[in-house]
Amino acid sequence: MALADNSLVHMGVGFVLMGAWAAYANVAHPMPAPLIAGLVQGCLTAAITLVMKRMLEILCRRLPGRGGLILPPVAAFALSLTLLGAIHTAAGTPEVLITLAVPTTVATLYATLYTYRIWSRRP
Question: What's the superkingdom here (predicted)?
């Protein structure tokens, strides 16, 4: 199995990168706020990545035509924004909007590129 297809690799990279971003986005606030934001975001990114990767694979294969290319990334964007916003708000992350900006953008870009990869290989 190639690294690009390995769910654990996707999850681990997401945890580290997006967790670090969330900690950085909240660094102006006293500890433990940046640490909590980073851990929350890292865990959410890992979990969402696993669910999103599988969701993209299923939707892309089941939706006919260009719907299989367009709708999966839109669903991923909505899932990411909704879950991240709700959980960061509940966790008391001080800079919710800044914290969400990068992970939501990256998740949508990831979803778009990964969906295209799957969609372009369909028979």
Answer: Bacteria
